[in-house]
Amino acid sequence: MLRSVFKNLFRTGVLCALTLPLSAESPKPNGPLGPEAFDRLTVGKTITFSQRGQPYGAEEYFENRRVRWSRLDGNCVDGEWYPQGDQICFIYEHRNDPQCWSAYEERGVLLVVPDALPLTSDRVLTELKQSTDPLHCLGPDVGA
């Protein structure tokens, strides 16, 4: 009798283990964020992003779609963003070509994907942390 109880427990455990990945799979984002949703998630915040688990850069978001970007090296560039189709495009003072991203929110975390690549791309930037503190920016030619 005891042997059949353990057999049934073992079978139940195996069945549960087999179904666990299906139910524990992370939900997929619904679709790219529109400009209003992106603005609501970002304005007044500084968001630090990682890529492949490593810090990548941070962006400070202001009213009227203005931004400030840094690669976390103390150098900052100002810019602005605008919607284009399903993407959010950024133009910065040091570049004339727009940088366009698809933005998603998954479990309260912002994900941005360049050039309409899939969410599985290794170029996805993932929100690492969020703050209301300004970016740390050095003045022009500091230390020169």
* Radius of gyration (Å): 22 Å
Strand order across the largest sheet = 1-2-3-4-5-6-7-8
Q: What gross morphology would you assign?
A: globular
β-sheet strand percentage = 35-45%
Find the structural class using helix and strand composition.
Answer: alpha+beta
The N- to C-terminal Cα distance equals 83 Å
Count of separate DSSP helical elements: 2
Quaternary status of these chains? single chain
Order of helices and strands: HHEEEEEEEE
Largest sheet: 8 strands, antiparallel, barrel
Average pLDDT metric: 83
The helical percent reads 10-25%
Q: Tags for this entry?
A:
8-stranded antiparallel barrel, 144 residues, alpha+beta, globular
What topology emerges from the helices and strands here?
Elements: H1 2-24, H2 35-42, E1 46-51, E2 54-61, E3 66-70, E4 76-84, E5 87-92, E6 99-106, E7 109-114, E8 125-131
Antiparallel strand pairs: 1-2, 1-8, 2-3, 3-4, 4-5, 5-6, 6-7, 7-8
Structural overview:
With 144 residues, the protein is α+β, with helices and mostly antiparallel strands. It is built from 2 helices and 8 strands; from the N terminus they run ααββββββββ. It has helices spanning 2-24, 35-42, and strands at residues 46-51, 54-61, 66-70, 76-84, 87-92, 99-106, 109-114, 125-131. The chain has an 8-stranded antiparallel β-barrel with strand order 1-2-3-4-5-6-7-8. A hairpin with a 4-residue loop joins strand 2 (54-61) and strand 3. It is globular and about 40 Å long. Residues 5-27 have low confidence and may be disordered.
